[in-house]
Write a structure and sequence with these properties.
It is a single chain. The chain is an alpha/beta fold. Helices cover 41% and strands 20% of the residues. It has a seven-stranded parallel β-sheet, with helices on both faces. Helix 1 links the parallel strand 1 and strand 2 (40-45). Helix 3 packs across helix 4. The model has no long low-confidence stretch (mean pLDDT 89).
Length: 169
């Protein structure tokens, strides 16, 4: 009888509190842990901004990997995360939010594992947010699978060039 292999996903998130994308990510974490997966969650950390999300992740039974950054564009945490992921046998990368998608894209290339990305929606309050939205839609053509949280998001991703697997949840 063959041994059952434990799934070891690494989820990349960027919430501070539990709301919006954080709620969807937390439900994914709970479902994966409940199914017997050994879940690790990498969450960006910012000086002076404690994360209530991390406590909920720990309560759900997952490991929290804080990604400390000196600035919002400090990517020095990515090589360390890749080394950790290789050492722990991570076999799936899941991302929630633009910044997490960028890191997941880099990790998937470094680790050679599948990438599952979630599209949570876009707002347009500043030029910077609008730019991130355009970049995110383009980036979401690359994952092995994308989950959109609403049909209009799936439509927007197809219009942006997504031709791979796409689910709506």
């Amino acid at each position: 009888m063959a041994a059952v292999r434990t799934l070891r996903p690494l989820l990349l998130v960027d919430p501070i509190e539990i709301g919006g994308a954080g709620k969807v990510a937390l439900e994914s974490i709970r479902g994966l842990v409940g199914a017997g997966a050994d879940v690790a969650v990498a969450n960006f950390q910012y000086a002076g901004r404690p994360s209530g999300f991390d406590a909920a992740v720990r309560a759900a039974g997952a490991t929290v990997l804080p990604l400390h950054q000196r600035t919002r564009l400090d990517w020095s945490c990515v090589p360390r995360l890749a080394r950790w992921a290789r050492g722990h046998g991570i076999d799936l990368v899941e991302s929630h939010s633009f910044k997490a998608h960028v890191v997941a894209w880099r990790l998937r290339r470094a680790l050679g594992v599948p990438w599952l990305a979630y599209a949570h929606g876009w707002t347009a309050e500043t030029w910077r947010v609008r730019l991130y939205n355009v970049l995110e839609r383009r980036l979401l053509t690359r994952p092995d699978h994308v989950c959109a949280v609403a049909p209009p998001l799936a439509d927007a991703l197809r219009e942006a060039g997504r031709d791979g697997p796409l689910s709506v949840i």
